[in-house]
Amino acid sequence: MINQIAMITREEILARLNDPSLLLVNVMPEETFADGHIPRSLNLPLSQVETKARQLFADVGRELVIYCGGPT
Amino acid sequence: MGYKNIRHYVGGMADWEEKGGPVEKMDLPVVDPSPRQFVRAETSKTWIWSRWLDTLANWPLDRLVGFWLGMILAFGFVYWGAGIGMGWGLQAGNASVKPDFEGLLTSIYFSFVTALSIGYGDVIPVGALRVLAIVEGAAGLLIFGCLVSKLVSRRQEELTEEIHRTTFEDRLDRVRTNLHLVFSDLGAVLQLQAEQGVLPGQIVRRLESTVRVFRGEMQTIHDLLYRTQVLPDEEALESLLANLAICLQSVVDLQSSQLNGQQRSQPLDAGLHAISNLANEICGECVPRTYAPAMKQWMDQIQELARKIA
Q1: Burial class (CB in 10 A: 0-12, 13-18, 19+), A40
Q2: Taking the model in full, what pTM does it have?
Q3: Which of A30, B94, B153, B199 could pair with B203 as two cysteines, CB 3.0-4.6 Å apart?
């Protein structure tokens, strides 16, 4: 699935850090998330994607950026 | 999952930090505004009375019983004390209840009779105690009502849970039985094919129907693994997965022997395709919950077989 979705560059995230229409989603486990994340990100651990994604992002048209620990 | 506008930041945290992006630590944003808070905000506007009743109804059974008994005893003491201190106590017959131990017992007896709203009338309150007795009667009724409803609902909850569990187990049993039928049917078809070479039309239709059943049960198991609210115990799950694996294996066998010479019908093809797609999503790493290594092995095997079908 990862292969099918578009990429975003670091520069674009940096430029739009204060843009509320861009929703940053960190898929790391809670502990790792607590250790450090891009400001304004939400935490949605991978294990909970199936159960919680709809709850967190009810609007499917919303601009989302997902990221995790490192290059995958 | 239907999201259209997703993008992936491939570098992740490592890349972000390495090039000096701002990092935020441990002020976990409150992601999920707890619905409980809303409820509480609403109830603060409602009556103190109903809130008090809600709290009471939420108490565990033993606490409720204790509170009820305590209240009755306390009222008994108050009736008795009022008789000593102020001179207007309870009256039994035409004489007032004496301020001794026997009087205390009578007061407690009266308290019970009032709280249970029995009201024999052999002991009666006098003066201001009449107000107190009415208050006790009302409170006793309410608390006793809570207590009874608690007892009833407890039994009911047990029953509902039991029903849920048995239907769930029944369903699992049915899946297992169906998978067994699918397996033996596929075996029969395989044998027939080995004997006759090309399958007659009737047998092809039978095969289609078998594949349809298989597809349905495949979907059930897939749902079971992906919707994690209810989960069978490991033993049941393992037997399901094992059954699933042998069914898939016979589909693979059938496919490899049938492909030469026989034209596959369209519904059969669609069914097999759906089965393979579903099975492909079952593997130790991709299901949302982590399972014991033995389970994972089964799941991986299922995925492997699925790829052979596709």
Answers
A1: middle
A2: 0.48
A3: B199
Fold classification of B162-309 (topology level) = Glutathione S-transferase Yfyf (Class Pi); Chain A, domain 2 (1.20.1050)
Q: Is B14 on the interface with A (CB under 8 A)?
A: yes
Structure tokens at A14: 């940096």
Q: Chain A partners of B10 at a C-beta cutoff of 8 Å?
A: 7, 67, 71-72
| Pairwise CB contact (< 8 Å): B12 & A70 | yes
**Is B15 within 8 Å of chain A by CB?**
yes
B21/A contact by beta carbon, under 8 A: yes
pLDDT per position as a tens digit, B211-269: 899 999 988 888 888 876 667 777 888 888 889 999 988 888 887 776 555 566 788 88
ipTM: 0.80
Structure-token pair, residue A70 = 């490192």
Segments making up each domain of chain A, as ranges: 2-12+27-67
Question: What H or E segment, with its residue span, contains residue B154?
Answer: helix B129-196
Closest Cα in chain B, distance from residue A61 (Å)? 6
Q: How far apart are CA B25 and CA B1, in angstroms?
A: 29
